[in-house]
Write a structure and sequence with these properties.
Length: about 180
């Protein structure tokens, strides 16, 4: 849900630069359906609206597969510069996930400060929750994990990573450019 901020920022900046939403239809992104499939997979394995994911099985392979689908999409669309920033963020996230057995390391403190107390408690008690792993002494690449957070008073507050920040910048940039002219 945090990526909605990037979409909103991109749309506002696009309008501020004289762009139009209708111009987004002219973006020529090939194989976009791979991104949609990757997002569906992540929605199935993330515990979003309840304490359990919709699909509590095969979390690790499905998490990795969702990233691979997005990487294929990014590879066939390398000509779009804003996607290079997004790809950089995705690579940082994937590095942390791959280094930790298919799960993203997450700080229980950051989750609690974002108001996700139950998620933080579940993560602390079991060590994993959905697609995340408790960030502790034996996790790798913690700097690339979910340790940043939005405070609980912000809508959709959550913990997020440096890679997520790059993904949001790339997404906002893509929208601004797409609203302004054909890419």
């Amino acid at each position: 849900m945090i990526f909605l901020f990037a979409v909103a920022a991109g749309i506002l900046a696009g309008y501020a630069r004289g762009g139009r939403m209708a111009n987004l239809a002219s973006l020529r992104l090939r194989w976009f359906w791979l991104v949609l499939l990757g997002m569906i997979l992540q929605l199935l394995i993330f515990p979003l609206l309840s304490d359990r994911p919709l699909l509590p099985y095969a979390t690790v392979p499905l998490h990795v597969l969702s990233y691979l689908l997005v990487f294929v999409f990014l590879a066939v669309n390398l000509r779009v510069r804003s996607l290079l920033v997004l790809a950089g963020g995705a690579l940082l996230n994937f590095a942390a996930i791959a280094a930790n057995g298919g799960r993203m390391p997450a700080s229980a403190t950051a989750l609690a400060r974002a108001g996700l107390i139950q998620t933080a408690d579940r993560l602390t008690s079991s060590g994993t929750h959905g697609n995340v792993l408790l960030m502790e002494g034996n996790t790798r690449l913690d700097l690339l994990g979910d340790w940043l957070y939005l405070p609980r008073w912000v809508p959709f507050a959550t913990a997020f990573s440096i890679g997520d920040v790059l993904i949001m910048v790339g997404l906002a940039w893509l929208i601004v450019r797409g609203m302004g002219k054909r890419v």
